[in-house]
Structure prediction request, 680 residues.
Amino acid sequence: MAGLTQKSVQYLKGVGEKRAGFYRKLGVETTLDLLYHFPRGYIDLSAPYRVGEAPVFEPCAVRAVLNYKSGEQRIRGGLSIFRLLASDHTGELELTIFNAKYTVERLELDTEYIFYGKLTGSLLRREMSSPDIYPAVTSTRILPVYPQTAGLSSRAIAANVSQMSQDIAEIPDAIPPAMREEEDLPELAVALRDIHFPPDQDSANAARRRFIFEELLTLSCALETSRMAHRKAKIQPMEPVDFTALFSSLPFSPTGAQLSCIATAGADMTGDVPMNRIIQGDVGSGKTLVALACAYMAAKNSRQSTVMVPTAILAEQHYTTMSKMLAPFGMRVELLTGSVQAARRRKILAELKAGEIDLLVGTHALLSDGVEFARLGLVVTDEQHRFGVAQRAKLSQKNESAHLLVMSATPIPRTLSLIIYGDLSLSVLDEKPPGRQPIETLLIDGGKRARAMGFVRQNLDEGRQAYIVCPLIEAGELADNLRPATEYAADLSDGELRGYRVGLLHGKMKAKDKEDTMRRFKAGEIQVLVSTTVVEVGVDVPGATIIMIENAERFGLSQLHQLRGRVGRGTDKSWCILVTDSKDPVTLRRLEVMKAESDGFKIAEEDLSIRGPGDFFGRRQHGLPTLKVADLADDISIMQRAQAQAKALLTRDFALALPEHQALAERVGNLLHSVGERPN
Ligand code: ADP
Ligand code: MG
Prediction:
């Protein structure tokens, strides 16, 4: 129990400091962590194939009699190889084994073995390279295969796990017994045994399903706790306001979609329950104005607002636009990010608490202790999918009785959005501001890069600006043909872009330097911004008309769409140049979609149909913690069950205080504390 939870894996026999280090790399510190380190699959020796019937190109077990062993053959690099032949009445199997003298010496001719591995070759000549070899008669028929790590074989992990079989019964079950029965799930001790050492495939599946449920139940409880508190809060209704003065001070007229979103949100805020609304609008659809109008309404009602965004750059940008627009009405806007100096920060916090600030724009620095409002009325989160669960939960815990407005450019299917956001009302900004020129998208290979650069230079000469995006930043993280942005920027300013003002922006820079670079780009001091995906989120520089994206195949379509949305924000024609050397037809088809389609929602659908859900909802896209067993795309129905159970359970025991909810409460607490997920 608690003891086992706390105990380091080093307490296990055979686990010294070195192996504990390997385990730590897997996120396994305690023996409980180890029990929850699940196999990614199994080697099934229970029904081995005959040689002639075994499938090719997928791992399988083949049972055959060993007929021949070659002597050791030396090949280059100090490697040694052995060749073996095995057969049954259906065919012959040729085996190649590397560097395993001892293993081969122990094998006996004319004896039956099970060879496990991937078959290649033809029907007449089957081959298997580096098979796992087991005696034909073994007691364990289904063996766990753990996620690969240097220094830790699956056999070693399995041995460590099996040392704990005695302790398993003592671990408290996070799923209350009644719920477990209702959901027809095995109890913890059984499931732990079956997920590591299943007697058959069905037991393994049942165990896995249980752990998926357990994980999603924990997640649901974490998400629902803060939501239910928000829904239950009673607040003082705001008076409706006349937006005419605000609108007529803008350099443009609001679109019909903006007007109707503002009207709907405004109506929500005149109610006595907190608003819980998401504004979904493609990049460039003008979501900022909706937030601004709501903050304006709150201020008119003597209520404070806060806008939380994922990056300092975006915070600064919102701060600049919003303070400019609200200042004429005597409303005060302040900025709070991690890089605000201590003295200034103290001053802001004091004024905030005194109610002198109407709107506070910031990053997750807004969540830190000491940020207290006098009378908070509205919380806006922009690019919400970039925040982690913990941050989201903390935000709503801090502001149970404020209106909540979520802005997102990432369309998410309803089922998934229910899970991530709960019962949000949805408003869609489905109209672009007028006068936007469509962005022309080109797809080129590396051979045409020089010409594309010429085109970039020509545009710079005519006074416009450009982004050049590359996927990664540092050596070490790199695949072969990718260059670090730093090196790349240096090469460009010494070569193809010599004489132009080239700036560099990447996620590992200090927040202050990032802000500084961005400010200089906005001001036109920097002509070309070489950047990683940090510019993906919401940045608005109307003078930029070209975005060139290197290694475009490395990005998801929705991400490319976000990036492309960085241009086409002014009145000049804009270009998006996708560069790829990929020859893969699926990749090229995916990228072709970008040429034909400019609607972010349609692009998301295409992405989904080409790549499949698992890829599309790349974990970080929605800000949920990395799930260990569950997959939000595949396990939607289990998630729905878990969410329903979580709601029912919290209705009965909101604080998870009952003894039978102790174990679950502990898990939920761990989840909320462990999620240190940060946007880049
Ligand atoms: P989003 O956050 O939805 O991507 P923004 O709010 O940043 O979009 O708006 C994109 C750009 O469009 C900004 O430069 C903004 O000033 C401008 N804009 C917003 N609404 C309108 C409008 N109704 N007419 C013209 N331009 C607009
Ligand atoms: Mg925006």
